[in-house]
Amino acid sequence: MESVDSVMSRLHSRSKNRRNLHIDRFKDLNVRWIEQDPTHTKSGWYAKVDSKDMRFSSNAVKTASKLIKQDKVKYWDQFPDKDAFPTTLSHILDSRVNPRLLVRHDGVEINAVLPPQYVIRDAGALLGEFIAPIRENLGEIHGISSLEEGSGDICSYRVVVGQNIMPSLQEKFGQFMMFHLGTSETGACDTTTTFGLYRTICTNSAIREKLVTKWNHRGDGENFFMKSSERLRSAGYYQGAYGKIFGVLLNTKLVVSARDLLSAMSEENLITSSHYDAATLRVDTPTEDGRPIETQYDMFNLLTRSAQDLPSIQSRQVAESRSLHMFTEPGGVFEVLRKSGVERFKQKSLTQANE
What are the beta bridge partners of residue 113? Predict the structure, then answer.
């Protein structure tokens, strides 16, 4: 984790170079393919911005392809000719009634090509909106765990706050409330806020999917901030609720083996195949206090710890939200499996402790 000041300083420093450029037509960018040479350190598509060549980042290619409804991966197969990229974009985009575009760059690269009405807010500005309300509603901020892909393409900031919700455990083994902000400074995803849990000893996170508030950047975001603030004001309830649930999980034996439970989750698509593979690699690793995985609390920590091994922030967040859902639903993970039709878990429940 980093301190609030450290994260905010880094984000504000990054935002100093960000610029939004509104152009009338795509062809005004004079996009063309340039092979690596003494004046261009990388091969790629370059645009003229303020008389300077700026290379299209991978996210700029992705957002531009999205504007013409082309999947980035399929794009390469359909248009293998490098000249087809700017030619096709110009043909489709410039023929529209309103061909204007928003181009985002950092002074070195083009970071995104977006619709003209898209509203961009830097991560530091977004996070800054929530720091004071988080302290007011959830207590002392211990730090921020930052996950970032690219130059702000996909960002996840986890603000760890308040007291250990599991007083029967040492603080380092317990869980803390977490405010989550997911965003992009380059239009790669919607901005979202939600709550979750964070475990400082192993930096595990879990996200509550049912409380997600989204902003698609097609407006000023006023409604997004209003809803996020409303949920912050009610967040104290979840501290107590999660404390009770995880107090039970801590003393509830698995009844079945961790491997068998993982297999059932995978069979019922309650976890992704990549999450299953990552968790299987860790299933025989002892807990922090040297025990085998034997309680539902241990199993929850296995799932959230292995989520860190997934290849992208977005796949990790899916794994974290599914894990929290399974273990905090009424009846717990076995009830979720029973409802999914897994016969061998039909008689097992959250309350079957210490059999």
Answer: 103
Give Cβ neighbours of residue 236 (< 8 Å, ≥ 6 apart): 137, 138
Report the distance separating Cα 83 and Cα 57, nearest Å.
Answer: 17
d(CA 36, CA 42): 5
Name the amino acid, one letter, at 289: D
Cβ-count burial of 240 within 10 angstroms (0-12 exposed, 13-18 middle, 19+ buried)? exposed
Rg of the chain over Cα atoms, rounded to whole angstroms, equals 23
Q: What is the pTM of this model?
A: 0.88
Q: Helix/strand/coil (H, E, C) string of 323-349?
A: HHHHHHCCCHHHHHHHHCCCHHHCCCC
Angle (CA) 197-202-205 rounded to 5° is 25
The whole-angstrom separation of Cα 287 and Cα 349 is 23
User: Residue 204's closest CA among 272, 135, 151, 158?
Assistant: 158
pLDDT digits (tens, 9 = 90+) for 325-336: 999 888 788 888
Quote the tokens at residue 261: 């439970």
How far from 269 is each of 111, 123, 149, 217, 344, CA to CA, in Å?
Answer: 35, 33, 27, 31, 16
**What pLDDT is recorded for position 76?**
53
Other CB atoms closer than 10 Å to residue 20's CB: what's the count?
Answer: 13
Domain positions in the chain are: 19-114, 123-244, 258-345
Residue 89 makes CB contacts below 8 A (sequence gap 6+) with 26, 31, 64, 67, 68
Closest by CA position to 352, among listed 246, 273, 254? 254
Locate tokens 């399929």: which residue?
A: 74
Q: What is the pLDDT of residues 145-188, one digit of tens each?
A: 999 998 889 999 999 998 898 888 888 788 999 999 999 999 99
- How many CA atoms lie less than 13 Å away from 37 in the CB half-sphere? 6
Report the distance separating Cα 8 and Cα 128, nearest Å: 8
Distance CA 146, CA 154 (A): 11
Sequence letter at residue 101: L
Residue 290 pLDDT greater than 90, yes or no:
no
120: left (phi over 0), alpha (psi -120 to 50) or beta: beta
